[in-house]
Amino acid sequence: MNIAITGGTGFVGSHLAKSLTDKGHSVVLIARGLDKRNETVLNAERTQYKAIGTSDEEKLVDAFAGCDAVAHCAGINRELSPGDYDRIHVQGTQNVINAAKKAGVKKVVLVSFYRARPNCGSRYHESKYQAEEIVRNSGLDYTVLKPGMIYGSGDHMLDHLSHVFHTLPLFALVGFKQRILAPLAIEDVVKIMEVALLEQRLSGQTVPILGPEKMTLEELTKRVGRVVGRVPMLFPMPVFFHYGLAKILEATMEIPLIAFAQVRILTEGFEEPSGLCQSLPEDLQPVTRLTDEQIRKGLPKPGPFALHDLKCRSARA
Questions:
Q1: What are φ and ψ of residue 235, in 5° steps?
Q2: Cα–Cα dist 40/274, whole Å
Q3: What is the pTM of this model?
Q4: pLDDT in tens, 160-202
Q5: E strand intervals along the chain
Q6: Please, which of 1, 273, 285, 295 could form a disulfide with 68 given CB 3.0 to 4.6 Å?
Q7: What are the two backbone dihedrals, phi and then psi, of residue 231, each rounded to the nearest 5 degrees?
Q8: What structural domains and CATH numbers belong to the chain?
């Protein structure tokens, strides 16, 4: 099959692309070219790269031509300018749906977020939910996936934890009441996406996905720290402190250690999904646990944060 992947050079998109091409399928990677985490995916066999964003509907039509399905993975967790959530999550998704219809694509799989919902005061959550509604009301065969915190090679979670452990001896936990997390391996997410794209399963469904283990942020941090070889001193800080820190880091770091939306995510936890959802079949339930081996597979090259992580440095480069 021929599958188009928006956000194709990003974390989820690149892992999906590699798995599909390894199985003999062809992929069209659609991305603006800003994500440099996994550029090797661009040179893989049976891969086309289209350097476009989701803002250009007509170019999307051309990119989707001949594709059997679209995996819509494009998204952001912070706004570089006001209105980015609406432009990328809402209008971008509408453009993808419009282009898919014009190109004759029959199936769309959307990667949303576990707690995406309307009227909650967070434009990240609200815009993700609006994207879900666009897909559900598109008239196309669809699957909406609502994963929680995904980890793996090239992610932000393991990458940032590793770098902060090599930079600082301290780690501030978010709030005094820790919520439940359920880390989700990228391998499990890709498996579910492939079933929806290739086997026509989960059609017309909205499916929440969590990892098989429940733990607090403190437990997760200690587990990763032991594998990294640097367990920092952990202490709680008020939520408002982290919101302020997120604002500073969003303004100064190319990829911030923590973003405003991520603070909201951590304060809510993953105990219940939002909205009417269907359960995953038993054979698709995630099974990959956050073992030392899994953590080690996803860790970046060891080292502290450096000047190249700052926006001012990146701008000069």
A1: -155, 145
A2: 36
A3: 0.93
A4: 999 999 999 999 999 999 899 999 999 999 999 999 999 989 9
A5: 2-6, 26-30, 47-50, 69-72, 107-111, 141-147, 150-151, 170-174, 184-185, 205-209, 233-237
A6: 1
A7: -95, 110
A8: 2-151+183-209 (3.40.50.720), 170-177+213-271+283-316 (no CATH)
